[in-house]
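Project outcomes to date are best conveyed with an example. Our students and postdoctoral researchers have been running inverse folding experiments weekly, and each run begins with a structure described purely in tokens. The record below, which covers 435 residues, was selected by the lab manager from last quarter's runs and is presented without edits.
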């Protein structure tokens, strides 16, 4: 399909001679010759184009000429020669301002018989691809380069199912394909978005959510894949599905991780609306769920009470200082956070106890009915035991069966189902044994 015809070569030769001779002439007769030759080659009036519906006309952008036929056109420019265009591809090209738009002139004829029975036609500014199932859609620029990386329509994305859609946050664009999407923004480039990781990204609000735009394709090793975004990562395993890792974004979510390597930012961060639950304050979403938890525990005969919730930077500073005074710094660091590093400052953590004070803030709380009930049921309300037994090398803290952390029902349930012991594991974050 890509062979060059003799009239084409003649046109190029004539053009070259004109340039060599420094002569600039109206291309009308040269165009007419090339268009007529192409028409004849395509079978003339008995071919796909059918009869002419008018004479050649010139004066198109850059000195181009065109002739219209019953079922298509032949368009000529000195740079691209005489090329036919038909049907859905022609309509799409016209819809993109024809030779005046980003596609410019066709640089070859339609090429059919590609994977899946489709056709494409190349233009100066990209290509238009058609298949029976998907119709004709444009392919251009950085998104086209990313699609090419996957092997065009023969690759995992298949045919485009939309044109580019622009006007996303920060001037971004996307294009959908049978097998996923390519997402581009000026500051991040064009990257694939497919499969389970795409579904998870969608659940965060795509580029408008906490993760922002992708900054890599999905990268897979063995049965594990991950994809990085401006503000986090989504990882996938065949056994565990997707997990979300996110950099600190306390205000936007309940999945922030605060530990000895990840201080509050800013250090004197104050959470959104705080609501008292029998004294201690919690962020409103956590407070609402914690109230349900308390009510249900008590309905089951458990004498559970809240001991401590939100603590400001200054409160934490004096608390930590008192522990250092009493136990020395090494022990204080094992049982208490330095100011600016406490989960309690997020308003998402609550220490629970028993109304008579048994085992208050001690490991033996785990053996009480309240401790056992929390370990078995807190996840139903979106809470996890943040500092479990045996995880001190990861969390940096001793076992605290009384310290509940609100992460939302989805994550709490995922951690439960998959036996993920800590938020550091869940978010693929490094261990934080020390400052
Ligand atoms: Zn605590």
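After processing, the design step wrote out the following sequence:
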């Amino acid at each position: 399909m890509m062979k060059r015809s003799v009239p084409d070569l003649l046109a190029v030769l004539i053009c070259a001679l004109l340039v060599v001779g420094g002569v600039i002439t109206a291309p009308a007769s040269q165009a007419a010759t090339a268009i007529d030759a192409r028409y004849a080659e395509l079978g003339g009036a008995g071919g796909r184009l059918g009869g002419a519906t008018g004479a050649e006309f010139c004066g198109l952008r850059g000195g181009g000429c065109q002739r219209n036929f019953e079922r298509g056109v032949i368009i000529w420019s000195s740079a691209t020669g005489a090329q036919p265009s038909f049907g859905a591809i022609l309509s799409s090209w016209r819809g993109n301002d024809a030779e005046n738009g980003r596609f410019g002139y066709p640089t070859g004829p339609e090429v059919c018989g590609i994977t899946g029975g489709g056709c494409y036609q190349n233009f100066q500014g990209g290509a238009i691809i058609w298949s029976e199932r998907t119709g004709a859609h444009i392919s251009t620029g950085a998104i086209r380069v990313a699609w090419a990386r996957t092997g065009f329509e023969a690759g995992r994305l298949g045919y485009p199912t939309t044109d580019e859609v622009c006007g996303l946050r920060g001037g971004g664009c996307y294009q959908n394909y049978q097998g996923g999407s390519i997402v581009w923004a000026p500051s991040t480039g064009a990257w694939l978005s497919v499969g389970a990781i795409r579904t998870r990204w969608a659940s965060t609000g795509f580029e408008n959510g906490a993760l922002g735009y992708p900054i890599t394709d999905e990268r897979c090793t063995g049965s594990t894949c991950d994809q990085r975004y401006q503000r986090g990562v989504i990882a996938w395993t065949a056994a565990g599905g997707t997990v979300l890792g996110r950099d600190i974004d306390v205000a936007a979510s309940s999945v922030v991780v605060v530990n000895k390597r990840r201080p509050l930012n800013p250090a004197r961060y104050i959470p959104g609306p705080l609501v008292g639950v029998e004294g201690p304050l919690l962020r409103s979403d956590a407070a609402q769920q914690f109230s349900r938890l308390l009510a249900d525990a008590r309905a089951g005969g458990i004498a559970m009470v809240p001991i401590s919730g939100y603590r400001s930077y200054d409160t934490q500073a004096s608390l930590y200082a008192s522990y250092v005074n009493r136990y020395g710094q090494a022990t204080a660091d094992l049982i208490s956070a330095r100011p600016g590093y406490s989960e309690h400052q997020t308003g998402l953590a609550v220490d629970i106890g028993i109304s008579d004070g048994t085992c208050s803030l001690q490991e033996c709380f785990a053996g009480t009915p309240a401790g056992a009930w929390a370990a078995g049921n807190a996840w139903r309300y979106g809470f996890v035991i943040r500092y479990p037994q045996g995880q001190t090398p990861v969390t940096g803290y001793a076992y605290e069966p009384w310290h509940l952390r609100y992460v939302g029902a989805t994550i709490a349930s995922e951690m439960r189902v998959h036996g993920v012991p800590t938020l550091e594991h869940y978010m693929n974050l490094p261990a934080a044994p020390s400052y």
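The chain has twelve helices and 22 strands. Residues 1-25, 247-252 have pLDDT under 50 and may be disordered. The training component of this project remains on track.
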